[in-house]
Amino acid sequence: MFSYYLDLALRSFKRSPALTALMVLALGLGIGTSMTTLTVFHVLSGDPIPHKSKRLFYVQLDASELGGSAPGAEPLTQLSRFDAETLLRDKRGVRQVMMTGGRVAVQPMSASGQFDSKPFFATARYTTADFFPMFETPLRYGHAWDANDDAASARVAVISESLNQRLFGGADSTGKLLRVGSNDLRVVGVIGTWRPVPHYYDLIAGRYADTEEVFTPFNTSLALSLPVVGSLSCWGNANSDDRHAVNASCAWIQYWVELASPAEAAGYRQYLVNHSEQQKAAGRYQRPPNVRLRNVNEWLDFRKVVPSDVRLQVWLAFGFLLVCLTNTVGLLLAKCLRRSPEIGVRRALGATRRAIFTQFVVEAGAIGIAGGLLGLGLALLGLWGVRQNPASYAKLAQLDASMLVTTFALALLASLLAGLLPAWRACLVTPALQLKSQ
Amino acid sequence: MDILPILSTLRRHKTAALLIVLEIALTCAIVCNAVFLIANRIERMATPTGLAESELLHVRVTNIERIGNEDALTLEDLALLRGLPGVKSAASVNQFPFGNHSSDTGISLVPDQPASTLTASFYQVGESALSTLGLRVVEGRDFTPADFRTLSEVEHDEKIVLPTVMLDRKTAARLFPGKAAIGQQIYLFDKPSLVVGLVEQLAPPQPLNADGDYVVIVPVRPSYNQGSYLLRVAGNQRNEVLKAAVAALEKVDRRRVVTKSELFDELRQDYYQQDRWMAALLVAVCVALLVVTAFGIVGLASFWVQQRTRMIGVRRALGASRSQILRYFQTENFLLTTMGIALGMVAAYAINQLLMSYYELPRLPWVCLPIGAASLWALGQVAVLGPARRAAALPPVVVMRGA
Predict the structure, then answer these.
(1) B300 contact A CB<8A
(2) Domain boundaries, chain A
(3) Residue of A nearest to B153 (CA)
(4) What is the value of ipTM here, to two decimals?
(5) Is there a contact between A186 and A155 (Cβ–Cβ < 8 Å)?
(6) What is the pLDDT of residues A335-371, one digit of tens each?
(7) Which pTM does this prediction carry?
(8) Which of A2, A214, A363, B333 suits a disulfide with A124, CB 3.0-4.6 Å?
(9) Distances (CA, A) of B389 to B171, B264, B328
(10) Partner-chain residue, chosen from A320, A333, A421, that has the shortest CB–CB distance to B285
(11) Does A22 lie at the interface with B, CB-CB under 8 angstroms?
């Protein structure tokens, strides 16, 4: 029976090609825009490290001075160096990392083997060793550094795939020297293709920033006074010239901890409260203990990572889809009712209401599939358009398998929904009346 | 034209009529809000910064290793830049509108005030910065050479008190409502400074065009690695001067590189790129919506014309003129569109309410109402014209016989 209904649908399309084209076009446009915006949203709001995101926590402590914000309000976004180093020493998590962003001047070696070419600037991350296992950074060549290198302020670096390409032509560069400012760092590892979306481990560097090009131990960056880039909040009377000194009352360090299970969060939170109380007793903190411990997704939600424009676009697109659907329902209905005589004949020849209903739903479904195909093409075109957008996230807009399936599911669902009302009206046609009027 | 027969006909096609009304209502609601959003973005993009934007260049020099002597080097750089042909003036500033760097400070009105009165963008500028930026002093005076300190000095010595500051009109009006701001004392980092002059307007580095865009200007010259150079040039040779400035600066010391060199216009372009993109997208969606709705009207009207062939024939036979048939369909469309618009306006305000709570948008202005209504009426009339003319062209004899 299904193939017969399909045949009937095709005949009906042939009879009114303009109307059919109009319906397919409207549906395709609606699906295309919805899928474009939904894909962007899907990419930008994804979980960057799904199997671990519930065990990775971002740590915040309320170290600032009395006055200003109300007690219990959101504490400082970052930690002071003193707090970060204390927590790191205590090692209460499976892994912990303190880090900050930076920017270094890289001097490429010229053909003659001298560092005399024009320098360029590269983004950098100054971090302790747990960064790589914690965020599961894949290494193409070599290995990361370890805690001993951290302690010794070892002059080592892990570089990105793109920097390795630029400086060493993509070859295994471990053991080679990287000149940063006037200092030499030994390359110990090269990162493989890796770009977490969002750039969750440091949102200050840019919500959808590219992976940093140079990674070097935190202590090394201090020893060499490598330039820090990021946000710096100081409070009280700046008691030191050097805002990055261990005792400076400035917050500029991001601190992440990995726990063995999500259940351990409560214990770790208590540890942070204890730490705050100790600091208050010691006179370092003025405010009552006020800590935050958010896992990856809570942190991304809290920081409202997905741009509000992207959310707005999703709403806009679904509004548009709704208009297109209403349009399709109206046209399908008109088409169905125009075929009342035909329905009358079919009913008189013994077709049940159920058969008529199925026939029109199949017809709507066929339009849905055609609309879905068109919508897919338009979505690909739309995503191409989005990639031309200047925003940092634009290049990430790619259709994946799950969104492909969603496109067709949405198209089919939409068209079947649109087909329900007309099909219902069609099966209510009374055969006698129609036959008489012919 | 009598409306009652149209209404009674429509009553027999309730579902189809309802659908078209619904479609028009949705389109109306979305288009009204989209147009409002577009206007909002355009307004945002058009907001002036108060600077002589078309004459400004930005150059940033960064050292790749420690060189020392930054303040002396900065003065040398500035002298070099001022000597270039085509450069009217040059200054060192810590930040500027549409730049990456942004520094804020609290302003208090009495010493040891527990919470500051407002937070302002903290402009630290060197000599001749005001004339370089093109800021007009509207009250009081510009800084004098004696006012200036270097940023390094101020950072190293907590005891240094800045005798003078300047504000823009907006900030002055907020701090000293109804009073003259010149001669008033304000406190930055708990240290007193005298307001000596007001400029007309100065945008913060990241303009929001919201109530919070306050600024304070202090006579503190950043060195090249603490800020940027801004150059004011004659408008028609900006690109040449920029190239010359970069070449001249790069020659000074090989341990420094020029990391930014751009026209101010480019900064503005980049800053508002996302808004432009979003506005373009909204325009595209509006057009698509209107086109889809128009085709929906065409489709449904054609169907109705076809369905009512017999009625049209009878009316024509009974003496109705072509224009009367034409007007019948036009009036019908007008009625449906009006219902859609009425419903759509309610929906538009509901959506606006929702957007207001999420995106800090102002209320939909009432002018959207007549504009939205007029454009949808026009759209409906254009869309129905084709089918209505086909109906009017039907010869009564053929129609009667065919029926």
Answers:
(1) yes
(2) 2-45+307-437, 56-302
(3) A241
(4) 0.82
(5) yes
(6) 888 888 888 888 888 888 888 888 888 888 888 888 8
(7) 0.83
(8) A214
(9) 63, 56, 11
(10) A320
(11) yes
